[in-house]
Amino acid sequence: MAPQSPGEQANPQTESRSSPGSQKLTAVILTLNEEKHIADCIRSLEWADETVVFDSFSQDNTVALAEAAGATVLQHPFQ
């Protein structure tokens, strides 16, 4: 990120989220049988660098839809 003068704001259109040394923001979604909502939810998080779906072994198409939308899916039973 380039140094800024006092009062100058960064321009998100020209700043790269993946520039060397920058931090990365990961959005995490907890799911259980959310096939009706998962695609819209992931789309709403396009501003994040990465989206991870933490699924509790859904019995519907949540996992397949999340993967198709570009999310990383991890499965573990909720307790």
Keywords:
79 residues; alpha/beta; 2 helices; 20% strand; disordered N terminus
In a nutshell, what does this entry contain?
The protein is α/β, with parallel strands linked by helices. It is 16% helix and 20% strand.
Strand line-up across the major sheet: 1-2-3
Structural class: alpha/beta
Total beta strand runs: 3
Query: How large is the count of helical segments?
Result: 2
Major β-sheet annotation: 3 strands, parallel
Could you report the average pLDDT, rounded to the nearest whole number?
A: 85
The percent of residues in helical segments reads: 10-25%
Termini separation (Å)? 41 Å
Q: What is the helix/strand order?
A: EHEHE
| Multimeric organization | single chain
Strand content: 15-25%
Account of the protein in words:
- The N and C termini lie far apart (41 Å).
- The protein has two helices and three strands; from the N terminus they run βαβαβ.
- Helix 1 (38-43) links the parallel strand 1 and strand 2.
- It is globular and about 40 Å long.
- It has 79 residues and is an alpha/beta fold.
- The protein has a three-stranded parallel sheet with strand order 1-2-3.
Give the topology:
Layout: E1 26-31, H1 38-43, E2 50-55, H2 62-68, E3 72-75
Parallel strand pairs: 1-2, 2-3
